[in-house]
Amino acid sequence: MAQPQTDRFSHDRYLIRQKVFKLFGEAFHVYDAADNVVLYSKMKAFKLKEDLRLYTNEDMKTEVLRIQAKSIIDFRAGYEVYDSLAGQRVGSLRRHGFKSMIRDEWSVMDANENVIATVREDSQILALIRRFIEAASMFLPQKYHMEMNGQTVVTYHQNFNPFVKKLEVHVIDPQCKLDRRLALATGILLSAIEGREG
What we know:
Layout: H1 5-8, E1 13-19, E2 25-32, E3 37-44, E4 51-55, E5 63-69, E6 78-83, E7 88-95, H2 99-102, E8 105-110, E9 115-121, H3 124-132, H4 136-139, E10 143-148, E11 151-160, E12 164-171, H5 180-197
Antiparallel strand pairs: 1-2, 1-12, 2-3, 4-5, 5-6, 6-7, 7-8, 8-9, 9-10, 10-11, 11-12
């Protein structure tokens, strides 16, 4: 069921569902709390420069959001987030290179490149266990939290099984300071980029 653009980004809870075993790329479905598909993305395999297009549904006729890597090779990966329908830049996300080798960490920036939030993996100890014990992600799925001004505004919780990966997104932002387009773009990147390394 298609939803208006304003409704699509007005929810407090989302579920990002990613098919793991896909020969020619990965597919992401984003659901609201009522199990309606609000976004769909199909990411091509073997692309040097990430370019994620999110659509209203699987027919991929209406592009809603675009997440594009700033450069082909970038250890401190940077990604621009655009609202495709409005034709405007929403903000950007930057992965902290060396820090993320031990514990995933990202900066979230607004359209003017001001850092407005930080996303971190739940625990440094658990992060290290996940990196060095291959099966650990099955029993210790990744959790992240996004902070603005010292307060948690979004949590991301991964549920993993051998066939489908799921990331629960919970927006805890009663004053609506955070643009939910950035919250969802972050969730998609955490699923696509960090999930690939876990």
